[in-house]
Amino acid sequence: MCPQLEGFPAIVYSGLWALKIYRKLSKSFPKPMKIIILLTDTPPAFSVNIEKGDFKIEILNNLNNPQDLEDTKCDGYIALPTEILYEGIEGIRKGIGEETVKLKNFETLALLGKIFGSV
Length: 119
Known about the structure:
The model has no long low-confidence stretch (mean pLDDT about 90). A 5-stranded mixed sheet has the order 3-2-1-4-5. It has helices at about 10-20, 25-30, 65-70, 80-85, 90-100, 105-119; strands at about 35-40, 45-50, 55-60, 75-80, 100-105. The longest helix is centred in the first third of the chain and has 14 residues, at about 10-20. The chain has about 120 residues and is of the alpha+beta class. The chain has a single domain (about 10-119), classed as SCP2 sterol-binding domain (Nonspecific Lipid-transfer Protein, Chain A, 2-Layer Sandwich). It is globular, with a radius of gyration of 13 Å.
């Protein structure tokens, strides 16, 4: 495990770790990807980098606002409050419609779904 992470980044790490040790990470994510996740009520953002059956999570101390995400190089991002995250896909879908969720690339949602399916 990774003792430097806490909160939601640690949960994401745990989900990816489970996929990795059961050799499902490269099957679930066959191409390299970098996704950034920002819980707007508990910044900073963090990146999830997946490549060749391995992953890395990095805390991005310079990304604290959803507006900052637009200028960041990545394959996708999601910025949302924790409350909406806990509502699941229905809450996220509603948040996208109400513009309380900022999303680039719907593959980001697939990443979250695969991670939570392994936890």
